[in-house]
Structure formats: C-alpha cells, structure tokens
Design goal:
Blueprint: H1 9-29, H2 41-65, H3 70-94, H4 100-127
Length: 130
C-alpha cells in the first residue's frame, strides 16, 4: 500500500484532533454536561472523522483516474454523507426537551466543522492542477 498518496489525510486527522480538544475545553469551561447526550462527543467525532476519511479517500481515487471529476465526486459524496448524518440525527430531532437543544446545536456545529475541513482539503486537491 502506497502511504504517500494518502498523505493528504494527515491534515484531516490533525484538525479533527485539535477540534476535539477545543470542544472538550469549551464544554468544561461552560460546565456543559454531555453524559445525557444521545451520542457521546467521542462517538460523533469518530463518526464524522470516519465519514470524512471515506469522502477524502473517494476523492483521492477519483483524482487518480479522472482529475476533472473531483468536484462532482465531492458534491455527490457530501450529499450521501448528509443523508447518513440525517439518519443519525433523527433520534435527536424527535426529542423536544429544552436541554436537548444543546445536543442539536452540538451536532450541527460538528457537521459544519467537518464539512468546512473537507471543503478546504478538496480545494487544495483542486488547486494542485494549476
């Protein structure tokens, strides 16, 4: 296995680890108890990281075969990721307790964070051709 072609995954792992550390610090400082969450923060980070890695591996494979299709592959894989995330989010959306609004905001912020990371890394792939 050629690890050199998967080297662009390293920034994803570093940024996800950094985001997790900051997330934990913010929850500690604001005294937010996450033990009552439907999904733990660690579970969500691992889930989002796994989905992001899958998206990025697909993009790297598409880049090898047809560089011109990387953008469309990003849109398709991100759309599939959104469907998966919605299915995961369904149990959280059903709860109407006010305390659970923190969990909903937490989920959406993590989704936006990982989407931003994926977008930036995809832009870096697309800029390689220039």
């Amino acid at each position: 296995m050629n690890l050199k072609k998967y080297k662009p995954l390293l920034p994803l792992l570093v940024l996800a680890g950094l985001a997790y550390g900051i997330h934990r610090v913010v929850f500690y400082v604001l005294h937010i108890n996450d033990t009552t969450f439907y999904y733990s923060i660690e579970t969500l980070y691992l889930l989002f990281l796994a989905l992001s890695i899958m998206v990025f591996v697909v993009l790297l494979k598409v880049k090898e075969r047809s560089f011109d299709n990387v953008g469309m592959s990003f849109l398709l894989s991100t759309s599939i990721k959104m469907i998966v995330c919605y299915l995961i989010l369904k149990p959280i959306l059903r709860v109407t307790i006010e305390i659970k609004s923190v969990e909903k905001i937490n989920f959406f912020m993590m989704f936006i964070l990982f989407l931003a990371i994926e977008t930036i890394l995809t832009i870096r792939i697309l800029n390689e051709k220039q």
